[in-house]
Each structure stands twice: as C-alpha cells, then as structure tokens.
Amino acid sequence: MRRSIPAVALVAALALAGCSSADAPASSSSPAPTASADAGVTVSNCGFDATFETPPERIVTIKSTTTEALIALGLGDRIVGTAFQDGPLPDGLTVDEPLPVIDERMPGAESVLELEPDLIFSGWESAFAADAVGTRDELAELGVGTYVWPTACMSADAPTEVTFDSIAAEVEQLADIFDADASGVVADQQEMLDGIVADDRGLSALWWSSGTETPYVGAGQGAPELILETAGLTNIASDLEGGWAPYGWESVLAADPDVLVIVDSDWNTAEHKIEYLEADPTLSQLTAVQQHRYVIVPFAASEAGVRTAEAAQSVALQVSEIEL
Q1: Domain that holds residue 254
Q2: Residue 39 binned pLDDT confidence (cut-offs 50, 70, 90)
Q3: CA–CA gap between residue 156 and residue 46 (Å, rounded)
Q4: 139 and 225 inside one domain
Q5: How does DSSP assign 211-242, residue by residue?
C-alpha cells in the first residue's frame, strides 16, 4: 500500500486517473471468491474483480451496514474512519474506543485518503464515484482496495432477492477477505431466526421508510420484504421491484394494511411520521392509524446486514403484542 504518499498527492493522482478511467475495459465477474497462497482472495463485487493479497488492516467504512459487519466479526479495531452512519451501534455491538467520524454524510476523496486506508468498505455502490471517494479503478491504481456490501450492488451482480442464506454468504465472503471466522456470527443469527414465532393471523403491512407526500416503502425484493415475511406479515407493496420504491398514498388507503412498520431515523423520526399520519384528515382514517398498530424499526437495521435477523425478531415480537 502506498502509505508514504501524502494525501494531497493521492487526490491529485485520483483526479488525473479520472481523465482516462472512462476508457478502461469492463471487469469480468466470477460467482465466488477464489484464493491461492500467492494471489490472496479475489472476489467479483458489483462486477468489479477485487483482489486482496493480504487481509486489510486500515479500513474506512461508509454506512452502518459495513461498520457493524466488521465489528460483529471482531475487526472493529481496524476501522480508521467512518462516514454516513445511519444510527448508533446496537447494544450487542461494541468497540473499545469511539470510532473516528470522517463525515456525517458522504465524504470526499481527500478526507478519506488522508487516513491512508488500504480498504474502503461501502454500503452503497454510489460511494465509488468521481464526485465522492473516487472510482474503484482509480482507487486501485493508488493501492486502495474497495468493497461494496454485496446486497447493495446495482451496476452488476445485483441480487434479485435477499434471503438469510444470502446474508450469511456475504458475511462469510467478508470473513474470507479478512481471514476471519464467520461461524459465530452466522450461528448467532440463525439462533435468533430459530426463536422467531411468525404471526399466523394473516396480517398485512406497509413498510414506510421515508417521504411524506409520496412515501418510500419496502418493496418486494429487499430486506424489508424478508423481515416482513419472517415475522408473518404480508407486504402490500410486494409487487414492486427492488428493495424500496415510491408508493402512492392512494394505494395505501385502498389496501388499508393491518400494521404500519415505520422506520425511525434521526432525520425523519417515527414519532414525526406518526404525527403526520394522525394529523392528516385522510390518512388518519387508516385502520392501523386509528388502532395505533405501529411497529418501529431503526433505520440502521432496515438494510440487509448483520442486524437483519435482529430486526425480524423485533418486528415479530412487536406484532405479537398487537391486539385486533
């Protein structure tokens, strides 16, 4: 890794590399990680072949999913900076020292590169853009590895659905990169899943993530769908493609879901969403609003990762306490 190069020189090189990166050939993809004594571990990640000759030691994480995955694997001490965290760490994930925060939102290349990371691990593929931390080809030329949480891939290798098996496989792939042991994390999540009692009352639900005039909801192919199914709920927006999608209030009113699963975040709290529903002359007529059938999920647990099983467990428990 080129840790002797000053950050300003890295940023300058990144800018120059950007002038020619558009002409670079597309990377080939492979379905599974490969490893050898000489080459380390190579994975196809969002269509980009990423090779890790040795386990990364200095990691910048972008989004909570990546930070939490590393901490769960016992690798939190390798995190040299975080950005765009969706919320505080849950009680079950702890670190000895507070994690250094680079930016509350998407960081720029200079602030990341001055930390001299050997890996930038992002929960959004869009972080690897010229106007963000830099493209993956450009960063590779500077000796900086890149990795996207696989469920977040969009340009290539995008998942058609999210399952607990696929999440476990992603945790195991991450562990391969770091030569770590994922068995404890996978076993703990399976134990949570085994203890979930799915509701059997045939209840329907809306997963409301954000937006007011036009709600942005959990669709039929992502973590929200998986969590709702696991808890025994039927997603009224399951016919929409992708993990999340815009959905008209007219459709919500027509479906009149039994339960409203509301995502809680610092920038758009569940309390604010509930106040909006109950103050609106039309939306306040929804059965779930009139009966206060609300289930709350922290934003940081709403995207696929090491907290998905915990989120499903929490939703199932909250639903079990709802009386019809």
Answers
A1: 197-320
A2: low
A3: 5
A4: no
A5: -SSS-EEE-SSSHHHHHHHHHT-EETTTTSSS
